[in-house]
């Protein structure tokens, strides 16, 4: 039995709709129902842990998405197993989003939008893929996939992770000791890190100083990775060329936030990619069966590492 456990009303509705459509009706229940007492898995987005901890049969807390920072892993510890949802369509969706973002800068569409406002006819160069250096922070299911795909398209790709990686045609860097070298090569820096206590505010002045002149940022990790004021300062000074931001420390981004108005910032409302609801529901149903039978789980999270 799966219990829908979120404190966000909009997400509660999405999950109810998705389970109604894709799951057998007797396989899931609501948090305040009688059946929740027999729930073995909670599908969650900012869950009420006080409530979940009272469910006697609960074994698995399952994020409905790829990120798990909303679950409070420190509190969960090893009490429950934790899983998240990632699949190929999810990766492909992120690839489409990022490909658009890269081309936006590679083919100077940012400049085109500015010039149109001023009715200015000024041509810019056509940059080839092989000339462009892309840096990807995080080489996991998302970042690792993107690195392979963009390298296959002929871009110069480098990536950075915690532990060393070996990916064909990708320059792989790892750990603090490689951080500066990695950043020095990233004309377009893509953040696909999970949010952990080690990397909050990583997209800040220190990092921006290490990037090449006129570098661009694409943040698809989490809003808390970014120090917004540092970004604004570096855009205003001309040191950075632009930023595409999909995630924000506070979502929705508040009215009148300076990022809304900034001409060098593109904002998307946390839509870079999500797995189709059928995939989300099926993976959670599958993991519920697996946890009951004591089998290995799909996309299990290391709660001690935090991702
Ligand atoms: P994974 O857990 O598969 O990969 C995480 C990667 O980040 C790993 O390569 C890991 O290194 C690296 N990493 C973690 N912490 C550090 C650190 N302190 N220093 C250096 N590298 C680090 O996650 P995914 O790739 O599936 O997803 C990553 C994040 O992308 C999600 O947590 C979510 O926040 C975001 N996301 C956003 C979406 C959106 O629509 N905006 C959609 C999907 C995901 P190592 O391999 O060495 O462990």
UniProtKB/TrEMBL annotation:
CDD domains for the chain: GDH_like_2
Aminoacyl-tRNA synthetase keyword on record: no
D-isomer specific 2-hydroxyacid dehydrogenase NAD-binding domain residues: 103-272
Pfam families: 2-Hacid_dh_C
Name of the protein described by the UniProt record: D-isomer specific 2-hydroxyacid dehydrogenase NAD-binding domain-containing protein
Entry GO MF terms: NAD binding; oxidoreductase activity
PANTHER family: 2-HACID_DH_C DOMAIN-CONTAINING PROTEIN, D-ISOMER SPECIFIC 2-HYDROXYACID DEHYDROGENASE NAD-BINDING DOMAIN-CONTAINING PROTEIN
InterPro entries cross-referenced by the UniProt entry: D-isomer_DH_NAD-bd, NAD(P)-bd_dom_sf
Keywords, sorted A to Z: NAD, Oxidoreductase
